[in-house]
Structures are given as C-alpha cells and as structure tokens.
Amino acid sequence: MIAPHDTEPPLKVLLVDDEYMVLDTLISKVRWQTLGMEVVATAANGKQALEKCAMYKPELIVTDLTMPVMDGLELIATLRRDFPDVRFAVLTAHKEFDYAKRAVDMKALSYLLKTPMNTEEIEHSLKACGETIRMERSLHSRARYAEQMMAQHMWEIRRRALGDLLRGMHIGERQLGELFPWLARSTAKPVVIGICMTLQRRNQFFARYPESDRPLLDYTMLQAAFEIVRELADGTVLPHRPGEAMLVLCLPAYEGNAQSEAIVQQLHNRLSHWLNKYFGVSVIFGIGSASSGIASLPKTLQEAILAAEVAFYEQGLIHRHIDFQTKVRDLIDEQDWMLLENKTRASWNSQTVEERLEGLRELRAFVDARRPHPDKLKRKVAQWLEETGSISLNRNDWIALADNSAMETWFETLETLLVRLPRSASAMYEGLHPDIQKAVDFIFLHLGENLTLTRVAEHIHMNPSYLSHLFKEATGDNFLDFVTLQRIGKAKEYLASAKFKNYELAEKIGFVSYPHFCTVFKKITGLTPSEYKKGVVPKG
Predict the structure, then answer these.
(1) How are beta strands 234-241 and 191-199 bridged, if at all?
(2) Which residue range is the domain that position 81 belongs to?
(3) Structurally, how many domains does the chain consist of?
(4) Ranges for the HTH araC/xylS-type domain (predicted)?
(5) Is residue 148 part of a domain?
(6) What are phi and psi for residue 201, nearest 5 degrees?
(7) How far is the CA of 255 from the CAs of 191, 192, 262, 263, 372, in angstroms?
(8) Most buried residue, 149, 245, 327, 336, by most Cβ within 10 Å?
C-alpha cells in the first residue's frame, strides 16, 4: 500500500520517451497522485527534455535511453551539468541493460523495465525515488534554513552593537574584534569613515510588499551591501532600521582625501546600480567626518545619520555632515512651534480649500526661513493633522508623510491631503446606530439654538431616557457634554476666522450669555476666547 503525501506539494515529474504508447501507458496506469507526484510535461527526445526542464523545473525526470536527436545518456550528462538539483530514473528494455548500468553509475536513482511493463514494480521504484528526493529536499531546506538563521543572527548581533555604539555604551575588545576584524591587521591608526546608507522613500518602498516579505528584503539588501563593501575596502555593515544601515570603512592613514572620496563614490555607484536593477530604488548616503581610529566611531556614525537628513532640503544622493551644519539650522524654541501650530491648525480646520492652503503656505514660509530638523517637522505636522481630525487620512497617507522624501515631494503630498474635502463634524461620527446618527446630524444643524434632550428625542421619535442611554453608549459622552464640546469646537473656528467679535459668538453657538461662554471655553481649552484668538490670528 502506497501512502499519500497530502502534507507536501507533489513532486514534479517529466517523462521522456520517443514511443507515444509508453508515455501514454505511464501517464494513465501509474497512480501518480497516490505517489505524491505530478506529471508536468512529456518529451520525445533529450533536446525537447532540456527545453521542458527549463520551463517546468521538474524534480524527477524519467527517461528512455535510446532516442533520436539526443539519447538518454547525453541528456543525463547535460542535466548533471546544467540542472544539478534535478534527479532522474531510466526506462530500459532488457537489451539496454548495459546502458542502464552506465546511467546508474551517473547517479540515476533507479531503472524501470518497460518491456514487459509492470505497473506495480514501476510504482514501487518511483516511490523509492520520491522518498530519496524528499529526504534530500528536507536536508537542503534545513541547511538553507540554518545558513539563513546564522546570517540573520549575525545581523541581529550587529544591529544591537550599532545601538550600543549610538548610545555611547562600552563595547568589549572581543566584540570589537568580531565586528571589525581589520583592526587587528592595521599597523597604524586607520582612518574610519561612517556612512548612513538609506533607501530613498524607504517607507513607501517597503509598503509595496507584504509585511511577511519585508525582513527578507532587508536581509537581501544587507547581504548585497556587505559584499560590495568588502570588495572595495576593509569595512563592515551594521543594520540600523528597515531600509537603512551604517557602513563603516577603514582606510589606510596614508591615503589622501581624494582617494577616500573616490572609494565612497565607487561604493555609492555600485550600491545604486544593484538596488536600482533589482528593486528600482535609489540610495542616499550621509557621510560623517573621518576619524582617527575606532574610538571616534560613535561620533562619526551620529554625524552620518544627520547628514542623510540633508536630502530633505538639498538635491543629490550624497551628503556630508558639514552640509547638515550649514543647511539644517533647527534653532527653534517650543514657543515658536506652538504659534505655528495654532495658525496652521486653525487654517486646516477650515471648510474651504483656500484657507487650508493658506495654512500650508505659512508652514512652507516657516520651513524655508527656519530650516527645522526634517524628522521633527514631520512628527509635528503628523500630530497636528491627527489632532485636527477634519481631514481623513489613511495608512498610505501617514506612510508618505513620515517618509524620507525630498522637501518638494513632501509638501506636494501634504497639499494633496489638504485639498481633500474635510470631513464635516457630523461625518466624524459616521457608522453610529441610525437613530443616533439622526440625532447627531440634528445637533450639528441646530447648535445655535436651544437644544434639549427632549427636543432631539421628539425629532427622532424616541423616548428621552432611552435616547440618553443609547447616546452615551454610542458617542462616549452624555448628551449635554457632547453638545457643549461641539459648540466649543465651532467657537474655535469662528475665533480663528476673526469674522465675529468675541461677544457675538455666545448667541451664535447657543450660549445664553457671553460670561457663561467664556467660563465654559476656558474650562475646556485652558484659555479665554481672547487668549485663544491671539494665538491663532496673525497680527496686523
């Protein structure tokens, strides 16, 4: 009884014989599925078999020996050279026994008699072939897995070592020797250069692939970078984060700046060519200042990370730390950030595209004049957008905003988001119970009027007590708190627009008096209406 192989994919089989009847009998009589095999193609001679082998990638080839054009022995010899992972068995008649013996000497797994053809014996031989192939496949798979795990373990050790270096922690001599073996070969203090290698728009690059594939992508790039670095100079690669790594080059002290620059440029050219060829992505280099010996490595690595940030403001793919010092000023105190936040958020809350774009222009003028650190700028803007809540952003939007793209591209992304029609305040509560949704829509339409629970309940034909219970469950706020919060939100919009005097707002948004409005506004925002208005409305 031949046991099925349900848990594994079937072995792919190619049948080769110049006799049609032999092929037909093998296909129809042998219980391939029971054997855990699948006939993917047939061929009439060795030449056809090689073509089919390249196309269908079989794991077992069952071949006759005596055939026109290319016989079985020549086919087996060619297979062993061009497709070393393919195994084969031979079909033979009694008179071809010497040929079959030669085939077995050439590592054929078995030989099958076709005259007379005994299906049971053929299945028994094929079963033995299948067991051998599966055992070899398992061993190869384990070997590849072990190699990959060792390599990944090596990269994880290097990632942790980089983290320790960047935090200024002590690393022992033994670990330094393992990370930088060329230190032992240096007779004098070498020149050490730290380079931050980062993919351009790396977040969007990784977002193109399933999450399960991303570690393998990162691993492949690290391996390629490691091999290219080692071909050009003494050096190593330390992983930082997905799509980003630190390259450490060790150059002889007698080599001048021109030689060092040439090696860095060649390294960038090689990596760029490889990444563009296989992944269609460019790579940015941030280069720290050259240091004498390994002791200054943490400093040059920190400089390299900062240098890579220059790509936000300046064109080009190679940037040095001196560029960061001159192109990125970042001398901005929190008070300036707060003023900018108040202005931009007020504009972005507007229902009109022009007012939102005016806020964007203010942000652009601020960035052009002050040159803040790109990473800090992106974090601030993402926080403001999230807290504004008037613009619906999806996962891809957040990825694009946080990406290491150039400034022009980043502002174009931000403009695209801001010109979208903002969500109305009531639309932010979509997906509620239909009756509660009606209640919320009614509240937003009548904020300036006397809104009571009874009035809203009558509008949606519901018992007030039951509405109060459902409303709290659906929105998280009780009825009165919800109405008050929406009125204060509307007051902020009016204050930012400066279209009304403060005392005019109370009646417009449903408060019975201006003093009561001021008291509630300060309780919720921490500011009086006048203080809030000063922070968001430009002077003059």
Answers:
(1) unpaired
(2) 11-139
(3) 4
(4) 437-535
(5) no
(6) 55, 50
(7) 9, 12, 11, 11, 36
(8) 245
